[in-house]
Amino acid sequence: MTLVLEQLLNGLQFGVMLFLLAAGLTLIFGIMGVINLAHGSLYMVGAYGAAFVAAQTGSVVLAILGGLAAAAIAGMAMELVVLRRLYARDHLDQVLATFALILIFNQGVTILFGRQPLFVSVPPALNGSVQLLPGLAYPVYRLAIIAVGLLVALGLYLLINRTRIGMLVRAGATHREMVRALGVDIRLLYTAVFGLGALLAGLAGLMAGPILAVQVGMGEQILITTFVVVVIGGVGSIRGAFFGALIVGLVDTSLRAFLPGLLRHAMTGSEADALAAGLSSMGIYLLMAVVLLVRPKGLFPAHV
Amino acid sequence: MSDNTIERAAPAPLAIGTLLATLLLAAALIALPFAMQALGQPALVPLASRVLIYAVAAASLNLALGFGGMVSFGHAAFFGVGGYVVGILYQSYTGDEPFLGLIPGTDQLLITLPAAILVAGLLALVIGALSLRTSGVQFIMITLAFAQMLFFLFVSLKVYGGDDGMTIRRRNALFGLNTRDDATFYFICLAVAAVVFLLFWRIVRSRFGLVLAGIRQNERRMAAIGIAPYRYKLAAFVISGMGAGLAGALMANYMRFVSPDMLHWTKSGELMIMVILGGVGTLLGPLLGAAALVTLETVLTSWTEHWQLVLGPVLLLVVLFTQGGLNGLLARLRPGRSAR
Amino acid sequence: MTAPLLSVRGLRKRFGGLVATDGVDLDVVEGEIHALIGPNGAGKTTLITQLFGELTHDEGAIRLSGEEIGALKTPQRVARGLARTFQINQLLPDFSMLDNVALAVQAHAGHSFRFFADARRDEGLRSRARQHLAAAGLSHRAETKVADLSHGEQKQLEFAIALACEPRLLLLDEPMAGLGHAESEQMVAMLSALKGRVTMLLVEHDMDAVFKLADRISVLVYGRVIATGTAEEIRDNPEVRTAYLGEGDA
Q1: Who among A104, A224, A230 is closest to B312 (CB)?
Q2: Has residue B304 been placed in a domain?
Q3: Domains delineated in chain A
Q4: What is the CATH number of domain C1-81+167-250?
Q5: B94: pLDDT confidence band, cut at 50, 70 and 90?
Q6: Which of A53, A121, B175, C196 maximizes the CB count within 10 A of its CB?
């Protein structure tokens, strides 16, 4: 029972990380109509930024700020230099141009930091674990990630549904001309939305640092999973991104945790482990296929 | 789409100039190994085989992407599976243990290539049938995700080497030829490439090809004249997957090795780069694009290990500032003539 | 009187709170030109789009020669003899005029899973397509790419493509919109030349053209047909007058 609960929490933690990426990706697609493969690069930049500042200064606060700033600056630069020229282009051009950005970011980071993964330690204040239930101690740091993720989700919900900026964002997705007619600088709005998306990706990246190895290619790995989230949730929908992320996080984590045990009932240990590893890596893609069969537009096909 | 797409307004009869240019290209490709030998650069022959194999893969992708408007980001799946068909059949052949206990292995090229085409086609049928229920950006993400799924499948299949891939000790046999010989293998690739390009040339101009191009331009219009787009798109996607599988089977023979790398998503990206470098929706564009990318890679890697840092900006410039890739540039250098 | 070619009963379509089509009843009899008029926003294009199957309706029945076609997809309806023109041109911009029409001929001739023969050298398809272009007065520009045509020529091409589908019932969505005076006259002439051979449901704002062409007129207001009758009957109908004067549209 405690094992199940622990895995649920792990799934939740993975889910909110996916949400931070999926929210930006789906917003950028919903509003600007751009598919940005380099969104994962911003995640990587956030992770490297924080790792670098942490190694230099030893300060957690500065590391967080450093990671966020690096991702936001990289994101805005990306928008100003490249993506702005892609809004009116077809998806093929967008895919290839942002694929080129991935190559540039990955090689750039390799030159700056080398191929060896960086390891980041958990901030001292969040070290250790808490006793959630008798027999269930859970790392504070992971709980913190879940809390941050849920807070961001709440904040985004309020931002989009309760503020003028949110209204513009919602309107901008469906009625570009109308927003322009209101006298709003649509370019500024786009850059702001892109900056927000980059910030969220950077946040996910810097939080991932102490759990995963910070290395080149980390962005693409999670990006493809994020695509699955967006497809399952419904392209362009924040709500879909949220629930899609939680579903994918939970499914992926539980398959990895429980499948080997289940298969061992049916076959020998090593074969079961190999098969389970394969099946659990494929699980979310199969889930996506099923969702597509039933709901081709995703679970929450919304306008924003 | 720019002017130099294949379906120009006027259906000019096959111009003498185009015919001559094609014959010239064919002659050059046939003479290439001998010329390399004469120039004392025999090491370039395998490189040319590589270009031809990638040209087949890119041309196949181009059928879906350029002519059909389906931006598939998962063609590495078909390419890789084609390769694994060769690898698995070879392993069954040498181990004398039928695949799944049913299908006997073989090292005969005349069997492995059709088998690769068949398996890749069936896979494309399944992936296409699901993915084509969506369009636009979802289609891109879904094809990418399915390819990734297969990537993980082969990583986990320890029987076939898992992460490390599997070695094919000898290239497949074809009649009594010495397929190990670089020039011989080059001519095999050339023959396959010639057949594929000839087929695509016919398909693009056929009733099916026009319907496909029509769907790319305006799906609503096609429905309004009574054409249900889905089945035509699916058929094109399957043909495209079959071509990529064929290329993968050749590549496995070329490298005498298959690994999940062949299915990696960056491989899908590379195939797309070749298509756009050469010129989307042009017949010979993929050949040019494959040549350009392989050359670029070969030249740059001799300078720096960070060759992708050069490829990135080059690709960016091509996407942002050229129309129609290399083929488009060539066409503009020859005013009054269209690029074919 | 024989059974109508097209019979619509209780057709309804909602978009959220908005009722776009509110229980439309409509009969179009074989051979007539039936005009559908109404103020802007009355739901004329929405109705055409539902009849053609590009938009699914919520309730009601659509019958073509007695056969219920409401559940069919657009290509299946085309196969049963429907065709339409679009108010906003839907053409294949990279193709020539002749290609555009030849594709419609090809689609009408059966499936297109033919992979080898050059379709542009298929004289059967091409000559039929040329006939349709000639009928629409477009022969001289057959090889011109659609993207290079004027708006008026594109409208005429829309018409030629629809004819190439050899429809029993042609749905025309504002064929005169955006045309100059001379072009409009030409379109009216083409439609009258076709009268009796092809049944037409004509949505049009140009009242001169409507009164010149239509055998019967239906008036659509707020998603309902409020009157159907001959030109005189409609002109004298008080309800129609209020609807039009109230909207200030003609």
Answers
A1: A104
A2: no
A3: 2-122+138-294 (1.10.3470)
A4: 3.40.50.300
A5: confident
A6: A53
> DSSP labels for chain C?
-PPPSEEEEEEEEEETTEEEEEEEEEEE-TT-EEEEE--TTSSHHHHHHHHTTSS--SEEEEEETTEE-TTS-HHHHHHTTEEEE-SS----TTSBHHHHHHHHHHHHTS-----SS-GGG-HHHHHHHHHHHHHTT-GGGTTSBGGGS-HHHHHHHHHHHHHHT--SEEEEE-TTTT--HHHHHHHHHHHHHHBTTBEEEEE-S-HHHHHHH-SEEEEEETTEEEEEE-HHHHHH-HHHHHHHHHHT--
Residue B332: what pLDDT? 63
Decide if B316 is inside a domain: no
ipTM score: 0.90
Q: Which residues of C touch B227 (CB under 8 A)?
A: 75, 107, 112
A242 closest CA partner among A40, A33, A21: A21
* Across B60-69, B125-134, B263-272, B313-322, least confident range: B313-322
Structure confidence by residue, pLDDT tens digits, A249-265: 999 999 988 888 888 88
Residue B126 lies in a domain: yes
- Residues whose CB is less than 8 angstroms from the CB of residue A202 and which lie 6 or more positions away in sequence, other chains included: A42, A43, A45, A46, A49, A67, A68, A70, A71, A72, A75
Range scoring the smallest mean pLDDT among B75-89, C93-107, C214-228, C236-250: C236-250
pLDDT of residue A135: 78
Averaged pLDDT score across all residues of chain B: 87
* Cβ–Cβ below 8 Å for C112 and B7: no
| Contacting partners of chain B (3+ CB pairs under 8 A) | A, C
Crossing angle of helices A269-294 and A218-233, in 10° steps, is 40
Q: Which of A195-209, A285-299, B91-105, C91-105 has the lowest mean pLDDT?
A: B91-105
Domain assignment of residue B159, given as a range:
44-263
The answer to whether residue B7 scores a pLDDT higher than 60 is no
- Structural domain count of chain B: 1
Average pLDDT over residues A113-127: 84
pLDDT score recorded for residue C79:
94
C52 reaches B (C-beta below 8 A): yes
Q: B226 and C75: CB-CB below 8 Å? A: yes
pTM for the whole structure: 0.89
> Which residue type, as a one-letter code, is found at position B231?
R
Return the H-helix or E-strand segment holding A132: strand A129-133
Planar angle of CA A238, A242, A245, nearest 5 degrees = 130
- Ranges of each domain in chain C: 1-81+167-250, 91-165
Please list every residue in chain B whose beta carbon sits closer than 8 Å to the beta carbon of residue C48.
none
Residues of A with CB under 8 A from a CB of B: 29, 35, 82, 85, 90-93, 95-97, 99-104, 106-108, 110-111, 220, 224, 227-228, 230-231, 235, 274-275, 277-279, 281-282, 285-286, 288-289, 292-293, 296-298
Q: How many CB atoms lie within 10 A of CB B159?
A: 10
Q: What is the pLDDT of residue B337?
A: 38
Partner residue facing B133 (CB), from A92, A111, A296: A296
Yes or no, beta carbons of A96 and B306 under 8 Å apart: no
Condensed to tens digits (0 to 9), the pLDDT of residues A157-189 reads 888 888 877 777 766 666 666 666 666 677 788
Residues in chain A: 304
- What is the spatial distance between Cα B268 and Cα B64, in angstroms, rounded to a whole number? 13
pLDDT band at C198 (very low <50, low <70, confident <90, very high): very high
